[in-house]
Amino acid sequence: MVIPQWRTGVYSRRPYSNSNNVELSCKSEYALLALLELATQHSNGEPLQIRQIAAEQNIPDRYLEQLLAALRRAGIVRSQRGARGGYFLAREPWKITLLEVLSCIEGAESRPTEASRETKSVEGMIIREIWQESGRAADAVLQKYTLQDLAEKRSSRRQLDLMYYI
After folding, report:
1. CB 88, CB 38: distance < 8 Å
2. Handedness of CA 67, 75, 24, 159 (dihedral sign)
3. At what angle do helices 98-106 and 26-41 cross, to 10 degrees?
């Protein structure tokens, strides 16, 4: 079995983690933040330039450029050339799942692990089965959420924060 790097936290610089030690890589976090900006602007139909996204989300320009290129190759975003050029979502935000994004950025099966070896013991097989089950559960959660869900959650949180400060 191969574990995607977004599950192992291999690229983690400032990871989000839960009590189960599942971490979100910096690479995936930046991609999701950029896509969240594009999802927010999707309804107006105007592309966002890399520098706008980078400034809003505090992402290094060059790194963002590489991430958006990968997302463009995967058909998640489209680019527009010219003075009014930039990037925009290739589809509606509610049609793009977090699993699709993370699979694009980290690769569906990005690196082999110890579990890829042939297991010779019953205990090893049990551990592998449980690990595979946890991977399927994580995939199910990520498949359930879309960029639209992220945008709505952010909007709700911002309204709560605003009410808190009033």
Report:
1. yes
2. positive
3. 130
- Where in the chain does DSSP place strands (E)? 16-17, 23-24, 77-80, 86-89
pTM of the model: 0.78
Domains of the chain: 5-165 (1.10.10.10)
pLDDT tens for 60-113 read: 999 999 999 999 999 999 999 998 899 999 999 999 999 999 999 998 655 445
96: closest CA among 51, 31, 154?
Answer: 31
CA separation for the pair 33, 56 (Å, rounded): 9
For residue 76, report the phi and psi dihedrals to the nearest 5 degrees.
-90, -35
Q: How far apart are CA 36 and CA 66, in angstroms?
A: 17
Q: Please, what's the largest Cα pairwise distance for the chain? A: 62
User: Do residues 68 and 138 lie in contact, with contact meaning Cβ atoms separated by under 8 Å?
Assistant: no
Are 29 and 106 contacting, i.e. CB atoms less than 8 angstroms apart?
Answer: no
